[in-house]
Structures are given as structure tokens and as C-alpha cells.
Amino acid sequence: MEKKSRRSFVKALGVSIGAAGVVGGSSILNSCTQVASTNSDTITLLTSSGELVKVDKSQLKPADLPSLSENQKRGREGLPGRKFVMVIDLSKCRNARQCMKACQNHHQLRPEQHHINVLQMQDAENTAPYYMPKPCQHCDNPPCTKVCPVNATFKREDGIVLIDNERCIGCRFCIAACPYSARVFNWFEPRDAEKYEGVTYNIEANVPQKKGTISKCLFSADRLRDGKLPSCVSACPNGVYWFGDQNEDAVTNGTTHETTSFSKLIKDNAAYTLMEELGTKPRVYYLPPKDRAFPFQGEIDQHHS
Amino acid sequence: MDKVKSPEESRKLLDKITFDLTRSIVKRDEFTNFWYFLLIIFALVGLWGWGIQIRDGLGVTGMRDYVSWGMYIANFVFFVAVSLIGFLISSALHLLKIKWSKVISRVAEQVAIAAVALAGIIIVTDMGRPDRFLNVFLHGRFASPIIWDVTVVTTYLTISVLLYYLPLIPDLALLRDKGTDDIPQWKRNIYRILALGWKGHAEQYKIVAHAMRILMILIIPVGLSIHTVTSWLFAATLRSGWDTTIFGPYFVAGAFVAGVAAVIIVMFLYRTRYGLKDYFEDYHFNMMGKLFVLVCLVYLYFNINEFLVPGYKMKTAESIHLSNLFTGKYSTMFWATQFFGLLLPITLMVNKYFRRPVPITIISVFVLIASWFKRYIIVIPTLEHPFLPVQNVPENFQHYAPTSIELMITIFSFMAALLIITVLAKMFPVITIWEYAEEKGISREIISEPKK
Questions:
Q1: What is the ipTM of this complex?
Q2: In A, which residues are within 8 Å of B141 by CB distance?
Q3: CATH number of the domain at A77-287, please?
Q4: How far apart are CA A196 and CA A194, in angstroms?
């Protein structure tokens, strides 16, 4: 790589690393994992999107790492005064799966592990099939946190359901309890385990993942703390996701960055929640898959209920 | 109680009873060694499998994100079920003043202790992080049915051990004082210690009787709880096939079926191996057979409720689950468990012929195997059909098939349970000697008098 272009690349990256701020929190050292020092000028780092990059050492700032216990404490409390909410516009989803990809990179997930999964749905025999992104529903009456024997998974003040994989005993009762199949388990060593070795655990991203523990969608709580939208919301190219704060009654579209009234959005579009009859009170709302200007190209899987 | 005998007659009879009932303790032949060898080898193979699982993660099992509970949980439920027989025979029947069950109560407690101890171990093998087991006590949340289960299972184990040990104390003293020389010295040393200086005073008998009565009453709610709470691990979820209100009594009824079968098998093995034909009489098998039919009928009633009612309505999610059981992938297993586990024992054992020792033991073996598969059918099919479609995952996430590691650990659990039962039978009399002697009209003074 030519020297000039490399430097500009690094500068651009410096911004994006800071912006991603994923693995640890807000600082560069925190968000990247050092893999190996190549020479005195550059250092190889792992970005939050899972890529290895070389960064000039002069670009690095000392990290302001919260300690593990501090991180776990603030991770359990959540962001004061907030009530996070997500709206998924099914009429827009074209199965681009950028959300799934971004999520798996952010949360150190194997290809078969989904915090968010785009499902091909058909409600009845003759109704139109559609794509349905399905993150954790962050229920206000969560069946999963109720059954946890050790309080490893919990509901925060701001509405997010989190998992502490430093506490989880791996009984998988929460998987059995969740009607949305939203939870995954680390059956083996997690993806890129060696790259993440020694990184301080960040409860709000559930990274590094640990073998024998549960993982789940966290609405990218670490990004929310930095005032950013969740990974999946930002990654969507089709304007499917709206994310925001119910207390402010405002949601922002991850693609267009347009902000609108949450209550008006769900009212005007006849939003619904998944399996509302179960009484779980989800914090994820769906706008019906109507007026779609593109064809459904998937194969409807017969393996569903 | 038979008519009072003369002291000489009594002493002679007591010697004979003691001789017969210590045969299991004295007897050690090649078969004993082979049996121990077999149990220990298989148990070690299972432990080796567990070692691999701890090293590589639970991924070595057939479980994945959708079917996230598999054979371990089914096996756990099975062992909890079998353990419930201790409560039925040595407490419920005792309190109802049913005499014939007295001679069986120690067998029932042996089975209960072995089963509940293994249930506790199996659940640890199912944990993703067994190293964090203590978190259950450090961070336990009483809203979780798992904590209820841990509480009642440990309580049940404690009470069962006490129910086994308390009536054993006079026996231990008796063996300490009158044990023949062919009992190994180290066993007699253990008897001396465990007998806690028992002298056979009326006051001591009174304390034991009193304590037993308290324990027998205490174990009723605890016994009912262990299997009810175990059923709630499933019934507390929203899934079709588990989301039902009769799971508590349904599990308890099923537990009695499995437990009666297990006790009959153990009784038969003791009877033939240790020459106890005069103790575990045909009469006892006959009565156990009647009890067997009764518990099977109750269980049948719950099965009809559990399957007919949702089957009549066929709600969307329920219908997928039920067709899978009735005509689908699990139909062979389902109908086999219903046939061998319920219909066959009921229809055969209403005839006296089939309540004789050999036929009833053969039936019991079938019922016990069917009981195990019944738990498999309760746990796994439900998880294969969640509410939302299973997509974007590898094929092996969609269906569950146990792996060899799971089989190894499951076989370990059986071998370890049999090992506990065997060790108990080789260490202590399998029937309460003093109680039996009293039944035969031998006075307590003679039972507790020291050897001449």
C-alpha cells in the first residue's frame, strides 16, 4: 500500500474505530483487540466489524477502560430515563441480511448463531410470504429472565434484556422459556476466541463470548451508551429499522436517519407485536408487510409451526 | 404379630433371620467381583465422556440452539421419577398402616437414594458451566423453578438418607453384637461406629419411632414437590406440549409407575441372588402387582387427559406437536411407551398369574424401559417445534439425535445408580432385621441382648 493512501486510510479508520466503539466502550484501545505488533510505527488491530487493520501507533490514545465490576454494574442499571423501542417495517425488508452480518461481527458470533435472524414467513396457506427480521423482543414481561436461576439474564430499567456471561451457568432454561427462539448458546469455543483472549468482558455487547454460556440480542447496548444506533439498525440498506426512545416518543430510521414520532408511526401503520397473545409484551413492533414493491424470492420453509 | 415365643425359640429364629439377611453382606464370589468390575468400568467410561464434554463444550452432544435440552434432561426426569417410590412405599403406605410393604421399605429407600443422588449428578452434566455450580447458591433467585428443584431435591435426598439410616441403627447394633465372624472386620467396625452406641432401651426405640414418624410426614410434601417442581421446569414455559396444567400430577403418577417397576426388579434380584424367598415372598410380589395396576390406571387416566383433550381441539401449534407424536417421527416411540408402559402391564397384571415373581419382573423391565423413553418423548419433540420457523441454521439444528458422548454419560448414570444400590446391599441388610423379627414375635429384649 502506498504511504500516502495508507495514511489517509488510517485517518478514516481512526474515525470509524472510534465511531464503532464496540468491544469495550468508547475508546480506541477499548474497541480493538491487539493482535500483534508488526514494527515500531504500526500496530495490527481487530476492528469491531471483525477485520484486521494496521494502525499507526501515534493514532492511539490511552484507554479509559471501565473495570469488569464497574462495567457489570452499569450494565445492569442501564441508561437512566430511557425506554428503548424498535419498529421493524416488514414492507421494506428485502432479505439483504446486512443486519445479520453486522450483528455477528459486532457480537463475535459464529455463522449459525443469530442474535437477529431474517425469517421467511407465511402466516396462512394462501397469504403472501414475507421476510421478517427477528431480534430479541426485549419483552416487558420476559419469560426468560423469570426462569434464570442465578440472575445472569435480567431486564434493565431502559427496557433491554441483557445476559451476564460471567455469571451464566449454562442451564439453558431461558432458551426453553423463550417463545421467540431469540437466544443462542456457545456450544463450542466462540468464533475467533484466540483474537479476543484477554479482552475485558463488556456486558453490554456480551463480548468476548464464552464457551458454555448464553448469548442474545442486546440492542447493541454498548452503542446506545455512546449515543449510536444498534449495529443491525445502522447496517440496513433498505430502511427497515426504526429505533428510539419511547419516553421521547421518537424513533430514528437507521438508513435514512429520519426521525419521527413513535406513537404516530405505529398508529398510522397498524403496528403489531409478535405473538401478543402470550402476554410477553414485546418492545419490538412490526409494521405489516403491505404494499411491497419487490417480489418475495425466498423458499418458504415447511419446517415451521 | 405371631404368638409370643419362648426365649430359646426366639433366639434360634433371630439367629436364622440374621443369618439369612446378612447373606448379602457376607457373600462375595466371582460374580460379585465381575459385577463391580462391570459397573466401575462403565462408570469410568462415562466419566471419560464427561471429561471430553468439559474440554470441548456441550457441542459434543446432539443438542443445539433449538433442541437445547436433550437426553440428559430426559434422563434427569427419569431418575427423579424413580426416586419417588421411596416416598410412596416407606412413607405413604406406612402411614396408611399397610403391613406388607414394611419388608420392602428398605429396598424402596435404596432405590430412592440412588436415583435422587444420580438425578443431582446428571443435572450437573447438563450444565454448560459446571465450574460455576456454586453460583446456584451464591446468586440463587427464588423466582426460578430450578432453585425450587435444587431445594426440594437436596431436601428429599436428606430425608431419604435419614429414612434409610434411622431404622438401620438397631440393625447395626444387632450386627455389632451378634454378627457372625464371616462378616469382614472392617464392615463390623463401620457398624460399631454407625450404631451410635445403640443399647436397645425402650427410650431409644421411642425416639427412633418418633423421628421416623416426623420424617414420614415431612417427606409427603417434599416427595410430591420434587416431581411436581421437576414438571414445572417444562410447564412454566409457553411451549406447546409443555404448556399444560396437569403436568404436576401427570409426572407424579408416572413416577410411581417407574418406581414400582424399579423396586420389583431389585426385589427379584435380591430374592434370587441372596436366597430371600422366605422374605420377599410371592405374596409381596402379588401385592406389589396390585399396587402396580393401581398406579398404572391412575397414570393412564392422566395420559388420556394429556393427549385426548388437546388432540380433540388440535390448536395450530399443539396439532404439529401431537401429529408428530401420533403419526409422525416419534409415533413408534410414543405408541411403544403407551403400550409397554401402560396397556400391557394393566391388562396382564389384573390376572394373578402375572403377579408372580418371574412374570411381574419381566413386565417391570419393559415398563421401566418404556418409562425412560416416555421422558425422552416429553422433553425432545416439543423443542423440535418452536413457534417460529427454524431457519438459517445447519441441518443438525433442526433435529435432535443423541451422540455417543451423551450415551456414555447416560450409561454412566445407570451404572453409578446400580453401584450405589449394590454397595448399600453389600454393606447393610436389605430388609430391616429388627422390624422383621418383631413381626415374627421376637421380643425387643432378645433382639438387643448382647451375644453370649
A1: 0.90
A2: 148-151
A3: 3.30.70.20
A4: 5
pLDDT for the residue A301: 53
pLDDT > 70: what percent of chain B? 98
Give helix B331-338 / helix B357-384 axis angle, nearest 10°: 150
In CATH, A3-59 is 2.30.30: yes
- Confidence band of A39 (pLDDT split at 50, 70, 90): low
Cβ proximity of A63 and A28 under 8 Å? yes
Contact yes or no for A14/A63 (Cβ under 8 A): no
Of A157-161, A186-190, B30-34, B117-121, the poorest mean pLDDT is in B30-34
A169–B129 CB contact, under 8 Å: yes
Q: How many CB pairs under 8 A join A and B?
A: 158
A167 contacts B146? CB cut-off 8 A: no
Query: Is residue A271 within 8 Å of A265, Cβ to Cβ?
Result: yes
- Please state, in angstroms and rounded to a whole number, the distance separating the CA atoms of residues B56 and B111: 33
Q: Rg for chain A (alpha carbons), in Å?
A: 20
pLDDT level of residue B438 (50, 70, 90 thresholds): confident
Chain B hits for A177, CB-CB cut-off 8 Å, are 236-238
Under 8 Å between Cβ of A75 and A46:
no
Element spanning A35, H or E: strand A33-37
Q: Cell numbers of B51, please?
A: 471429561
Q: Is A268 exposed, middle or buried (0-12, 13-18, 19+ CB in 10 A)?
A: exposed
Measured distance CA(B391)–CA(B440) in Å, rounded: 69
Q: pLDDT tens digits for B69-127?
A: 999 999 999 999 999 998 899 888 888 988 888 899 999 999 999 999 999 999 999 99
Residue B354, pLDDT > 70, answer: yes
Question: Given 3-state DSSP classes, what are the helix, strand and coil percentages for chain A, each rounded to the nearest 5?
Answer: 25, 20, 55
